[in-house]
Amino acid sequence: MVVLGAGFGGLELATTVTDELGDDVELTLIDRAEGFVFGFSKLDVMFGRHDPVQVLHRYDGMVNPGVRFVSAEITAIDPSARRVETSAGTYEADILVVALGADLDPAATPGLTEGGHEFYTVAGAFAAAEAIRDFPGGRVVVAVTSTPFKCPPAPSETALLTYEYLTSRGLPCDITLVMPLGTPIPPSPDASAAVLAAFAERGIKWIPERLVRGLDPERKVALLSDETELPYDLFLGVPAHRVPAVVAASGLAVDGWIPVDPLTLETSFPGVYAVGDVTSVGTPKAGVFAEGQAAVVAQRIIGHARTYDGRGVCYLEFGGDQVAKVDVTFVAGQRPVGSLIGPSTDLAADKTAFGADRIRRWFGREWSPSAAGTDG
Ligand SMILES: Cc1cc2nc3c(=O)[nH]c(=O)nc-3n(C[C@H](O)[C@H](O)[C@H](O)COP(=O)(O)OP(=O)(O)OC[C@H]3O[C@@H](n4cnc5c(N)ncnc54)[C@H](O)[C@@H]3O)c2cc1C
Known about the structure:
Blueprint: E1 2-4, H1 8-21, E2 27-31, E3 35-36, H2 39-46, H3 52-55, E4 57-58, E5 67-71, E6 74-78, E7 83-86, E8 89-92, E9 96-98, E10 103-105, H4 112-115, E11 117-118, H5 122-134, E12 138-144, H6 154-168, E13 173-178, H7 189-202, E14 205-207, E15 212-216, E16 221-224, E17 229-231, E18 234-238, E19 240-242, H8 245-248, E20 272-274, H9 287-302, E21 311-319, E22 322-329, E23 337-344, H10 345-363
Parallel strand pairs: 1-2, 1-9, 2-5, 9-20, 11-18, 12-13, 12-18, 13-14
Antiparallel strand pairs: 3-4, 6-7, 7-8, 10-19, 15-16, 16-17, 21-22, 22-23
Helix pairs in contact: 1-9, 2-5, 6-7
The structure holds flavin-adenine dinucleotide.
The site of flavin-adenine dinucleotide has 36 residues, from helix 1, strand 2, helix 2, helix 9 and strand 21.
């Protein structure tokens, strides 16, 4: 069995299958990155809570003996033959799982790389951390540049955490959030109301149902999809998302992403599954959904008749050590539903435990991000 991509989905799948099947399965997990970084850790680095080195979970030294990890660039996928070409050779599989996530394309937004910061790539978030650290205060625009985009709550969290960071240092701030959605968390009216109330309390301006199409770095203005302009001193943007080029070239993608059976995560190619951000399964692009889908594929491979229920529980940062949980379910053909728990400081501890639990299961290591150097 070959798993492409060691992110949220690939790590969960590889761990569950090898834990359950032991020597009865030969599993190869392929990724080009140095290690795994949780999406939420990017925000932790941006706002100075953790150092970059603390949030990188290196693939070398993974302790799960059942997983054969290959550090390589995947250069071609033949889904009919279930054959994969990589910079480290060719791999063939009885079962192939594509968990390659979404690629990010900051250059697709004119002026973004010259005049602003994107905070969705690891490098971009770490660079944004320096810009935020050196920012003397002023107008901040947090904005989404195209749809779909990962973790729909992340821009709202970024606006709230920017407010906390600047005001706690006595710096002036005037924050505007530009989002394509009508409400911050569409499946949960309660979560949306709580986020909008937090914006109102802090004077954060909320501009819904719009995108930023480009920046004019000379004039320091963001150009919105409704033809209006927004001046900024610091721009924090969500870049365009694309299916990885190797997936586009494979014939697996249709209309941008890989279509799958929403109950089984099977693609139209026998023996080929896809999970997570690389699919168009109908859930938001987020780690908790990638993990849930991977868990279902793992159970099916192990031999249990599980189907995917579209449920995920996401954490939502309000700043000031206040974290909420949003429990959302997306079922094909039905209106998504969601409920809000918190925010509270107990849930901040819950979120830390969520991360530590994944690192223990996936990497066999303890992770306590406040203590530098405990991981890797
Ligand atoms: C700022 C931010 C905050 C977020 N917060 C949260 C949150 O709180 N909760 C949550 O659930 N989600 C959150 N997310 C979203 C979450 O990070 C992603 O949705 C999740 O990682 C998707 O999992 P995946 O397995 O589909 O893909 P990924 O985790 O992206 O993994 C894909 C893997 O494929 C590898 N890869 C891609 N192409 C190739 C290739 N050609 N060759 C070799 N390897 C390749 C990549 O290196 C990567 O390791 C956040 C994202 C961001 C940016």
